[in-house]
Amino acid sequence: MQTDLIQEARRQAEICNACRYCEGYCSVFPALHRERAFSDGDITQLANLCHNCRGCYYACQYTAPHEFDLNLPRALAEVRQASWKDHAWPRGFAHLFDRSGVLMAGGLVLGFALIFALAQALRPDSGAGFYAYMSHGLMVTIFTPAFLLPLLAIAVSLRGYWRTVGGGPVRPGDIWGALRSAGRMKNLDGGHGDGCNFEDEDRFSQARRHFHQAVLYGFLLSFASTASGTVLHYAFGIEAPYGFFSLPKLLGVPGGLLLSVGCAGLAWLKLKADPELGAPAAWGGEMAFVLLLFAVAVSGLALYAATGTSAVAWLLPLHLGAVLTFFLLTPYSKMAHGFYRMAALTRDAAQNRAA
Amino acid sequence: MTAIPDSYDIAVIGGGNAALCAAITAAEAGARVLILETAPKPYRGGNSRHTRNFRCMHSGPLGPLVESYSEEEYFSDLMKVTGGKTDEHLARLAIRTSEDCLPWMEAHGVRFQPSLSGTLSLARTNAFFLGGGKGLVNAYYRTAEALGVEVLYEAAVTHLDLADDRIAQVTFTHAGEEKTVTPKSVVVASGGFQADTDWLARAWGPAARNFLIRGTPYNRGVVLSDLLDQGVEQVGDPTQCHAVAIDGRAPKFDGGIVTRLDCVPFSIVVNKEAQRFYDEGEDVWPKRYAIWGRLVAAQPDQVGYVIIDAKSLKLFMPSVFPPIEAATLPELAEKMGLPPDKLCATVDEFNAACGDPSGFHPTELDGVSTSGLTPPKTNWARPITEPPFYSYSLRTGVTFTYLGLKVDENAQCRIGDRPVTNLWAAGETMAGSILGQGYLAGFGMTIGTVFGRIAGKEAAAHAN
Q: Which residues form the FAD-dependent oxidoreductase 2 FAD-binding domain (chain B) (predicted)?
């Protein structure tokens, strides 16, 4: 970890600890106020607990031009970003975080080209729907490792994080607490329920919270759609294409719509928000991630809409290329935040229980 | 000189809590309001940006407040700190109206939070702003601007032209130009004069040049002195200010809450000659912190040094700067610029006077005292023996000044025996009308909110 980032966050946390005015905004402050001195692990945990709602920045009487120069959302965002690189596995891939924007763009093009070429070269003789363009076997061959290997990488990373922050045995009740918090985006409600500060300086709004919820639940629905298709295929021998009144479509269509709207909303908000209150160096990668997720959602919906037309020939590689890029970069992109955030919330629930 | 073209019903001078309450109230009554705030936007809000709560009467649970807090109890708490130097009529008006203010504040964007960790003693009496005073100020600016109130930052009012019994014109500088505005009503809510070091030194004596100012550097008393010079009636002891002992390393201005030190009761405090000068354990800290500003101000160079040892370090709230640490007392003295021999002698003498410390209890008067020592330490007197040793330097930190404009129950200013027909005052600049000395936590915001709203209402009624 870059010690100067930790040291700067620690300097600011010590000022916050002497003030405490922001106690009610989010989970960061009660956690911060429990300590008198902050180890590197404490700072890393606070950083991953912070949802960058910015309430504390706009309420702070010590922001620049004041000589104390507080900008806690930024200090924690920088540590958060660095902590993901620090815990990345394999170690050699840590630097991918710095280039995730370029990698996503490149991955999209290469993934499209790869899958398009494979689909052309190995085009099946028979098959319905998109299976007419690419066999089920080929898809499984590509996507099983592309899904499982990143999950393995994330699991190793989280174990490292857990050690860094001094987490003990994991209790189901703490995971439940974390799920409840994330499920409602409690930490973006401002403590008063009016939402957070993001797109219009100190004005509280629910925009970011609601768009993020759309992304979260849209993503989960889309994932459930794919999972339900897998179950139908293997357990019941019912193969794609599925009609509208089937589980994969009933989950996938609303999921894709939510994901599209949520990503578009988050990208729009990000353009309006002050980049200096986050980690400015990560801005491009974060934006690219939102747009990639948007591409996954929109291409998926388009693919469904194009069923039976020749557009499937290029929409399918586009969608699958986007999904492939998304999966492969999950441990080294903004997507990692979801996993670390769950770990931090679980750790926080445990500490609240102990306090 | 440029006369600003727009016609305003009301000019509000100042940009803190009282000014904003006045502006919002007047705008809701249909007046066209202009706020003239001296500070640039990042520093808007005067001392309100450093506040954290609002003391509020309530007959049952109200917002974040638990149980009840009656008018009588509130008034009696006030009398205790002011030693009776209180205008009872205005004080009771402020107290009684405070209960209505809390829902009004919520309706105008202020959000509250449960009593902060470390302040449980105030959970019944004081409603804490979520995010503190700057959060409140931000919410009020949003509300005011939505009501059409215009705000000019870096607009320094230099003169109110008092013609007969009314303010005829307001002169201010803005964007490098001198400008004038001729509103029908004027509300002054621009605080005291504590940030004008020369004035403070004239009032208090040259020692005041070594004082630190806990709040805004923009409360220089320009409008206050301009009005007093023209004969507007004044109130409050002109030589006095409210001051506490804060970390000596705090910035000259705007250090705010984080520079406070709560460690005095567990320490000995010496001056630059390494001599003790007052009973550090006289009472619990919330009841004593306000006298230490004066005690330190009376010492050579207006500095004091808190000395504690390892066993006391975690008994008080952390503050912004870590203490200076040393393995031995002579080393600590060296680091603090104190004479080592004298410090060791003072600590030895104190330690020898300590009795049995087994009854030590950090949060109540424990009676663990010294014997045969002058001055004594009457509570929490434990020998300073356990390394490492720690020290903080102390300086006098000024919170506010008492000199102000005398107002009546309509927040209206007076000249001679008659009111100034279109001039009202609210907040710190008239708080001397109620607080003759001392201070009660959260009462400044009560005065500002109550009299800000009254001033806004009266000013709008006059203009309409």
A: 9-436
In sequence order, what are the beta bridge partners of B246?
B260, B395
- Whichever domain contains B22, its CATH number is 3.50.50.60
Token couple for A12? 């600011």
- Exposure class string for B362-392: b at 16+ Cβ within 10 A, else e: eeeebebbbeebeebbbbbbbbbeeeebbbb
Least confident of A110-119, B56-65, B216-225: A110-119
Radius of gyration of chain A (CA): 22
- Say whether pLDDT at A240 is over 90: no
Question: For chain A, which residues make up each domain, given as ranges?
Answer: 3-85, 88-354
Total domains present in chain B: 2
For residues A329 and A335, the answer to whether their CB atoms sit within 8 Å is yes
Whether chain B has a CB inside 8 Å of the CB on A26: the answer is: no
Give me the CATH number covering residue B373: 3.90.700.10
- List, for residues A174-187, the tens digit of each pLDDT value: 999 999 999 999 99
Q: Which alpha helices (DSSP H) does B248-303 contain, by range?
A: 285-297
Instruction: Identify whether residues B213 and B270 lie together within a single domain.
Output: no
User: Average pLDDT of chain A?
Assistant: 94
Domain co-membership, B34 together with B171: yes
Asked if B344 and B419 sit in the same domain, the reply is no
The whole-model pTM stands at 0.95
What are the Cα distances from residue B79, in Å, to A114, B54, B82, B85? 82, 18, 5, 7
Domain interval for residue B273: 244-397
Final residue belonging to a domain, choices B382, B397, B412? B397
Query: For residue B250, what are the contacts with CB-CB under 8 A and spacing of at least 6?
Result: B212, B214, B259, B320, B395, B397
Distance from CA of A70 to the nearest CA of B (A): 12
Output the pLDDT for position B63: 93
Interval B395-434: pLDDT, tens:
999 999 999 999 999 999 999 989 999 999 999 999 999 9
H helices of A185-311, in order, are 207-236, 247-272, 283-305
Helix ranges (H only) for A87-135 are 100-121
Q: Would you call A166 an interface residue with chain B, using a CB distance cutoff of 8 Å?
A: no
Per-residue model confidence (pLDDT) at position A87? 97
With CA atoms as reference, the chain B residue closest to A32 would be B117
Task: Pick A202's closest partner by Cβ from B138, B257, B317.
Answer: B138
CB atoms within 10 A of CB A182: 19
CA atoms within 13 Å, Cβ hemisphere of A287 = 16
- Chain A residue with CA closest to B257: the answer is A19
Q: Do B113 and A23 touch (CB under 8 A)?
A: yes
Q: Determine whether A65 is exposed, middle or buried from the number of CB atoms within 10 Å of its CB (0-12, 13-18, 19+).
A: exposed
Q: Choose the final residue of a domain: B378, B397, B416.
A: B397
pLDDT confidence tier of residue B1, bands split at 50, 70 and 90: low
Helix axes A100-121, A312-329, angle to 10 degrees: 140
Per-residue pLDDT band for A163 (boundaries 50, 70, 90) equals: very high
pLDDT digits (tens, 9 = 90+) for A20-64: 999 999 999 999 999 989 999 999 999 999 999 999 999 999 999
**Closest to A312 (Cα-Cα) out of A119, A110, A133:** A133
Residue B178 has a pLDDT of 97
Residues of A in contact with B142 (CB under 8 A): 202-203
Q: Does B320 touch chain A (CB under 8 A)?
A: yes
Contact assessment for residue B347 and residue B329, using Cβ atoms and an 8 Å cutoff? yes
Span B355-373, average pLDDT: 95
Residues of A with CB below 8 A from B50's CB?
61
* In a shared domain, residues B248 and B193: no
Q: Residue B271 phi/psi, 5° resolution?
A: -95, -170
Q: Tell me which of A116-120, A153-157, B311-315 is least confident.
A: A116-120
